[in-house]
Amino acid sequence: MSGGQFDGKVALVTGGGSGIGRAACQRLAMEGARVVVADIDAAGAERTAGLVAQAGGEAVAVRADIAREDDNRAMFDLAEQRFGGLDAAFLNAGILQPYGPLETVTTEMFDRLIAVNLRGTFLGVQQARARLRPGGACVVTASAAGIIGFAEAAAYAVSKHGLVGLVRSAAAAFAARGARINAICPGMVLTAMTGNAGIETIDDPDRLDDPAYRGALTAQQIAEVALFLLSRRAAGLNGQVQAVDAALLSAFPPIDGLG
User: Of 109, 119, 121, 175, which shows the fewest CB atoms inside 10 Å?
Assistant: First the structure.
């Protein structure tokens, strides 16, 4: 594939084996990028790489547990060794917690959420800052739960709030190397992680349907915003946090009886 906004570029996507990550890998390849698909689910990563190849793109799959420092280093090494460098890093991998009130959150549950969502992404951010070529960009998947509290998933919200602080704090370090970092904060997304069937097909990005007000979004609708932030079209954006939530957090919900 060639002629797109990522023609000649190399991209790394974590959590690329399903959902938002899979859609981003497919779209990056459609726009000309060669893609490293990283996921703890090796079969999922291979499936994504296969979908890219079927569509005429180029991708390589790698199993990576982002909570491990060695795995973070290895997936960035692969991008450089296989494709000669790195221009875009979409640090999208993460896990959810079982919903429940604060008193049900165990220390083990909290530590696991922090180890993967916050520490693991921090390790990836460090690698991206060091590895991205000048003009490159990093995008981190946070969450609407990184902007407001989430009473039924406190540990998850803490981890995602941490990512918002990380991205804002890292902007200067990325700028010093001629690169950028931004975050997206999805609302409800229809992916396997949220109990919905995964969608492997990609729609024409200029013909995507509008989600319902405060409704659920598709993985591709989130991925398109990530691609924009990774592209040169977003050259003026650094250290920013973009909600992608169909107006979920735009206002207080209506109260019955108050019109």
Answer: 175
Strand partners, 63: 39
Q: Name 189's Cβ contacts closer than 8 Å, sequence gap at least 6.
A: 19, 20, 216, 217, 218, 219, 222
**Which uninterrupted H or E stretch holds 236?**
none
| Catalytic hit among 146, 156, 181, 211 | 156
Contact predicate 97/145, CB 8 Å: no
pTM for this predicted structure: 0.95
Catalytic residue list contains 213: no
Task: Give me the domains of the chain, ranges plus CATH numbers.
Answer: 10-244 (3.40.50.720)
User: pLDDT tens, position by position, for the chain (259 residues)?
Assistant: 657 999 999 999 999 999 999 999 999 999 999 999 999 999 999 999 999 999 999 999 999 999 999 999 999 999 999 999 999 999 999 999 989 999 999 999 999 999 999 999 999 999 999 999 999 999 999 999 999 999 999 999 999 999 999 999 999 999 999 999 999 999 999 877 666 666 778 999 999 999 999 999 999 999 999 999 999 999 999 999 999 999 999 988 755 554 4
Check: CB of residue 42 under 8 Å from CB of residue 63. Answer: yes
